[in-house]
Amino acid sequence: MNWEPWTGCYKISDGCAHCYFYGPLAKRYGQSSIQKTDKLDWPVRKNAKGEYNIKGNKTLATCFATDFFLPEADEWRKEAWRIIKQRPDIDFLILTKRIDRFLVALPSDWNDGYDNVYIGCTVENQELANYRLPLFLSYPIKRRFIACSPLLEAIDISPYLHGIEHVTVAGETGREAREFNYEWVLDIREQCVTANVTFWFKSTGSLFKRNGIAERINPFKQGSKAKELDIDILNGTKLF
Ligand code: SF4
């Protein structure tokens, strides 16, 4: 289930190059202008009986069609934090390429983090891993995960895995997708095994190279193809 309190985004790093917000799919999935939606208060809306419309014990993927930490959303984010605080029975999963804006407009009672907030830091290459992950680890966050997505090269995240609960890896999607090498995936998986961190190979992306052969993968098969390779280490976690 997704919660999109605002929409729109713009490119800030290498992984954004072929983001689906632009081009022919922009109308369907979003746009570059940042706009508040009519869903900002959605997690706390109630029915006629005074019960929440969204029942508890759920995970809400938050701002997966935008970025929670966009500067344009600084004011709206204050309200979003208040809403998140009111629903401790829901886990909010927030993925960002703007982790360096994490501290902006943080609630005054955040302390070392809310129990129901999982923050995911996206990294797509070594340079951005080296920039974003030390910041990510320095912030007061209770539940952290790393999303290597879209992964664009082999990366070493092993220095940054302490305090991380989970890592996901995925390739780039779309007609212009850059090649995604299975060896990079296996390498990160090994780093997770050594650090005792759970691992999910989420998607092959559109141009997947394995055993020296690059293959175009249909968008509807990228998740199942990754799953077929059977390399996930989830240890019963259901969140991701
Ligand atoms: S941060 Fe995410 S949503 Fe925004 S342009 Fe980049 S890839 Fe697209």
Structure, described:
The chain has five helices and twelve strands. Strands 1-4-5-6-7-8-10 form a seven-stranded parallel β-sheet. It has a three-stranded mixed β-sheet with strand order 9-11-12. Strand 11 and strand 12 form a beta hairpin. The chain is globular. The protein has two domains: 113 residues; 92 residues, no CATH class. It is of the alpha/beta class and 240 residues long.
Quick recap:
The protein is α/β, with parallel strands linked by helices and 240 residues long. The protein has helices at 26-29, 74-86, 126-138, 182-195, 222-228, and strands at residues 2-3, 6-7, 35-36, 58-62, 90-96, 117-123, 143-148, 166-170, 180-181, 198-203, 207-210, 213-216. It has two domains: 1-113; 149-240, no CATH class.
List the helices and strands and how they pair.
Layout: E1 2-3, E2 6-7, H1 26-29, E3 35-36, E4 58-62, H2 74-86, E5 90-96, E6 117-123, H3 126-138, E7 143-148, E8 166-170, E9 180-181, H4 182-195, E10 198-203, E11 207-210, E12 213-216, H5 222-228
Parallel strand pairs: 1-4, 4-5, 5-6, 6-7, 7-8, 8-10, 9-11
Antiparallel strand pairs: 2-3, 11-12
The structure holds iron/sulfur cluster.
